[in-house]
Each structure stands twice: as structure tokens, then as C-alpha cells.
Design goal:
9 helices, mainly alpha
Length: 180
């Protein structure tokens, strides 16, 4: 079957032992390719710029709430309710991700505490378990969700106007390229 030990690795693991051909060396990674695909899909969305920006704003609004796993569903539902682009709403919820959860919710909580004029000291280092968090009870939840509501309205409005400006810019560039 095998004449020497070096043939075993070549027979069992041929892809690991062969060298890459020159044509495969310059191909972009699949993740980069998928990112470019998503970018062009976003650029080529159908609908008026207002429609797309409205969906984006609804997604950003929903993305600022700590309802993990439901943000996309809420964003798409709000986009449907306010007649916005549903795919843009789903993309807008990506404003919150594992890298941005802590800063977003910390800021939202502080905004909520400020609006409620809460005098009680809240020291994040004192919370070492869920039971410690429950001592703060409804005050914590109310402050967090009030801050999320206010920051969601502000960030949603900003993302609407910023998105609208960018979409008009992208559509203008696309029309210019098509005319040339």
C-alpha cells in the first residue's frame, strides 16, 4: 500500500502538503469577498433614499436597546410600521455588537440616571453577581431603558439624516458612472 512513511502524509493529507499555485496566491480571502458583496448590495438597494434611510434609522434605534436576539426583529418590525427599508433596518441593528455592548449600555444607563435625577450611587465594580444587580432592581432597568429610549431617538435621527446624505451621494456617484 505505502512504500515509505513520507507517502502516508501525501495520501492522507494532500491539501496540506501541496503548494499553492500561483493563480490562487492573489485571490482575496472569502470573508473579504463576502464583505464586498454586502457593500455592493447595500449600495444598490432599491427604493428612494428616504425609504432606505428610514429603515436604517429604525434599525439603529432598535440596536440601542438591550434586547439581545430580538434587535433585528424589532428593527424590521419598526421599519415595516414606519415604511422603511427592512434590509437597511437589519443592517442598522449592527450598531450594537459584542465590541460595542458595554460602552453603549453604560452611556445609556448614565443618561437614564441623569434624566431620572438619581442620587443613589451606582458602582459597577460592586456588581459581581446577578443577585447584586437585582438589589438595584427596577431603578436599574428603568434608568437603562429610559436612556436607551432617549439615545435611540437621538442616534436614530442622526443616522436618518447622515444616511440620507450618504445615500444621495452614493446614488449620484452611481448615476455618474453609468452615464460615462
Amino acid at each position: 500500500m505505502f512504500k515509505n512513511i513520507s507517502q502516508i502524509s501525501q495520501q492522507l493529507l494532500p491539501k496540506l502538503t501541496t503548494k499553492k499555485s500561483l493563480s490562487n496566491r492573489h485571490k482575496p480571502p472569502k470573508l473579504h469577498r463576502y464583505g464586498r458583496y454586502l457593500y455592493w448590495r447595500f449600495i444598490r438597494m432599491r427604493g428612494t433614499p428616504e425609504y432606505i434611510a428610514r429603515g436604517l434609522a429604525m434599525g439603529v434605534f432598535a440596536g440601542l436597546f438591550p434586547i439581545f436576539g430580538l434587535q433585528t426583529i424589532v428593527g424590521v418590525a419598526l421599519a415595516t410600521l414606519f415604511r422603511g427599508h427592512k434590509i437597511a433596518a437589519a443592517a442598522g441593528t449592527w450598531v450594537s455588537n459584542p465590541l460595542t455592548y458595554v460602552p453603549i449600555y453604560a452611556i445609556n444607563f448614565q443618561v437614564g440616571r441623569l434624566l431620572l435625577n438619581s442620587q443613589e450611587d451606582f458602582i459597577p465594580e460592586s456588581i459581581i453577581s446577578f443577585q447584586e444587580l437585582m438589589k438595584y432592581g427596577s431603578q436599574f432597568v428603568v434608568a437603562l431603558f429610559l436612556g436607551c429610549l432617549v439615545m435611540g431617538i437621538i442616534c436614530g435621527t442622526v443616522s436618518y439624516f447622515l444616511g440620507l446624505k450618504l445615500i444621495y451621494l452614493w446614488h449620484g456617484q452611481r448615476l455618474k458612472k453609468m452615464s460615462n
